[in-house]
Write a structure and sequence with these properties.
The protein has 9 helices and 10 strands. The protein is of the alpha/beta class and 248 residues long. It is globular, with a radius of gyration of 18 Å. Bound molecules: adenosine-5'-diphosphate and magnesium ion (MG).
Length: 248
């Protein structure tokens, strides 16, 4: 579903991704951990072409994301297609404040996917029901708690029928008592077979949902294994140090 090969990203002199290789199978759940500044967000953002890679290739759902042969309108069209394959949820739920929850969700499906409003609404309500928020469809984002807003952000991404979901610290901005309700939604997606890459500091969650855990440091994937391997028997010193630092 995802094939990343020798991916590099620099900002001027700063090499943020040095050579990242990663294959993700359909239905796999990958949790990415690592210290601040190790390149986790940059990896997700280059996958979505929110950042342009400096080298290497990214293939998502059989489509080359960074196709250097395209420019202008062709590139725009290509990126639009690529991005509908990738649903992204950030730390800060960027819902449109002047739109209701329902309007926020159907915006993409009606404008980008050209779904009929009625069909988009029907699906949006179904998705809202699945995260326990059907009664909030006519509310505005301001009227919702952080956890509810983040569940809506997940629904909004899912409404585009993405092949892969990317989560960048989806619970880091939440009050502790609201973290669980958001993780529960992601866990359900994992059970439903969604392919996901999740950057998180929630290690017990990672242990529970991940098929593979990836430890990044200094722009590299240092270690990649099952949760049992990575948490129980980390091979690299840097992984051991990182895990020790977060458990102290
Ligand atoms: P992480 O998500 O693992 O904390 P990031 O991918 O956000 O790390 O950042 C990796 C490094 O790249 C950091 O040193 C950060 O300061 C730098 N960086 C990220 N975005 C930019 C940017 N737009 N311009 C310059 N440097 C950046
Ligand atoms: Mg980050």
């Amino acid at each position: 579903m995802v094939k990343i090969n020798a991916l590099k990203k620099s900002y001027g002199q700063l090499e943020v991704l040095r050579s990242v290789n990663l294959d993700v199978n359909a239905g796999e759940v990958i949790v990415i951990i690592g210290p601040s500044g190790s390149g986790k967000s940059t990896l997700l953002r280059t996958m979505n072409h929110l950042e342009t890679p400096s080298g290497g290739t990214i293939i998502v759902n059989n489509t080359l994301v960074n196709d250097d042969n395209l420019s202008g309108k062709m590139l725009e069209h290509h990126l639009c297609k690529v991005r509908t394959n990738l649903g992204m949820v950030f730390q800060h739920f960027n819902l449109f404040p002047h739109m209701t929850i329902l309007e926020n969700i159907i915006e993409g499906p009606t404008i980008v996917l050209k779904q009929a409003r009625q069909e988009a609404t029907r699906r949006a309500i179904k998705l809202l029901e699945s995260v326990g928020l059907a009664d909030k469809q006519n509310a505005y984002p301001d009227m919702l708690s952080g956890g509810q807003k983040q569940r809506v952000a997940i629904v909004r991404a899912l409404a585009m029928n993405p092949a892969v979901m990317l989560f960048d610290e989806p619970t880091s901005a939440l009050d502790p008592e609201l973290v669980g309700e958001v993780l529960a939604v992601i866990e359900q997606l994992a059970r439903d077979g969604m392919t996901m890459l999740i950057v998180t500091h929630e290690m017990s969650f990672a242990q529970k949902v991940a098929d593979r855990v990836i430890f990044m440091d200094g722009g590299y994937i240092v270690e990649d294994g099952t949760p049992e391997q990575l948490f129980g028997n980390p091979q690299h010193q840097r992984t051991q140090q990182f895990l020790a630092s977060i458990h102290s």
